[in-house]
């Protein structure tokens, strides 16, 4: 019998199944109805998650990519759907998340007439994505989808955007699903590893900076062998804390906004920086001051999966273009032990332990004590998510990550990321505890995704730090324009009533000592939960009083 004719939309879904996609996140639109129909036939293989906003859908896809290492899949409609999804594409780019955004597009015959919701997506997304294309030929659907997977995963992972003209989707497609794409692997040259060993042997104050994406459990285990064998201090880069056990005796802390001053000084005084995976962003380097471009004071060994990142900002003493896991496996065999830096490693960890001790606050709920409590009671595999705002400084400082892929936090500084990331995390890992820490302004940018959580039984716990201000901007405002508050005060809804309206367990905490019981009730509720914390805007960040600024 002749093979049943497949439409381009069905062929697209065939390709997603061949690539191992398990979920797709969307806001439905008429421009890709054919794809929605094709997904109806494979509900047992691809779970379609209907979101409440395209930014939420794109951020869920990005979080999926971070948690699985395979591209998260997002479908949105043309025009407003695409523009609203752009924030998720930008976040995926800066965070190096593998994802693919599929956009329904106007019919090919209507292009270039400013048809209804028409946008040129190549022009719009080229600065944000690794690759942008439009599939005009239904026979090439498999080619485009498979290439999208390869581009999203190879080198530095990131987002790909494919536009799908609605008339093309219903036409017959002669192509076939090519098969599962795996990222290309590049091993470091033996001569480079030997040069690394020599540079390490010549140093007296080395420091390992660990970051980036594309890691595996096995690669991080190899890196741990290298670090332990050579007694090296390890710091993680901005919002990459879960790459290394924060309780490990070699851990020196994380570099981000407002880092431990002792760690910052340790970076300045290092005579060798071994940077693995990180591109050394503005946040990690405190505005390019801890490590100064173009030629740092410190000797720099820079290992990155994308050769285009080597020398892009900093000229390294030794640049190694290699897959991070392959580089880590090679490093595991390197042995250079120095008693001098072994003692410094111990001091670095002691400084970190002192840094994470909770600080006192004079009024409102103490977020330091809240994070310390979560650190004590959550299982090691619990996933913590957050968006952007000063509230996140309390989480990053006082909570200790112990396992890989337990932190979902946007290095792009995107508000509204935490709630959708938490929903995706709980859908991907329903057996794990997922907690989102959000500010009041941050939550209100994506809080509607609690409806998505309730619909799909994603029992996340959202903790809202309510201080009635856009905290980060208010802090900068107090420093730069004291006494001239403008645009940073917000009037909030009743968060408890709002949470209850979504079907969540919801409660308010006004005293620090009441938080443990409130959190346990949220955990026991067996439904999505919201815990509102009444915090003081005066305590704008750890050890920072707003009026003192």
Structure overview:
- The chain folds into three domains: 162 residues, Thiamin diphosphate (ThDP)-binding fold, Pyr/PP domains (Rossmann fold); 166 residues, Rossmann fold (3-Layer(aba) Sandwich), CATH 3.40.50; 182 residues, Thiamin diphosphate (ThDP)-binding fold, Pyr/PP domains (Rossmann fold, 3-Layer(aba) Sandwich).
- The protein starts with 7 loop residues before the first helix and ends with a strand.
- 36% of the residues lie in helices and 17% in strands.
- The protein is globular and about 70 Å long.
- The protein has 20 helices and 20 strands.
- The longest helix has 17 residues.
- A six-stranded parallel β-sheet has the order 2-1-3-4-6-5, with helices on both faces. Strands 9-8-7-10-11-12 form a six-stranded parallel β-sheet, with helices on both faces. The protein has a six-stranded parallel β-sheet with strand order 14-13-15-16-18-17, with helices on both faces.
- The model has no long low-confidence stretch (mean pLDDT 95).
- Strand 3, helix 4 and strand 4 form a beta-alpha-beta unit.
- It is of the alpha/beta class and 549 residues long.
The number of helices is 20
Question: What is the helix content?
Answer: 25-40%
Strand order of the largest sheet: 2-1-3-4-6-5
CATH homologous superfamily identity of the largest domain: Thiamin diphosphate (ThDP)-binding fold, Pyr/PP domains
Mean pLDDT over all positions: 95
Assigned CATH class of the largest domain:
Alpha Beta
Strand content: 15-25%
Overall geometric form: globular
What's the Cα radius of gyration? 24 Å
Query: Any guess at the CATH architecture of the largest domain?
Result: 3-Layer(aba) Sandwich
Largest sheet: 6 strands, parallel
Topology, number of strands = 20
Distance between the termini: 78 Å
Count of separate structural domains: 3
- And the CATH topology of the largest domain? Rossmann fold
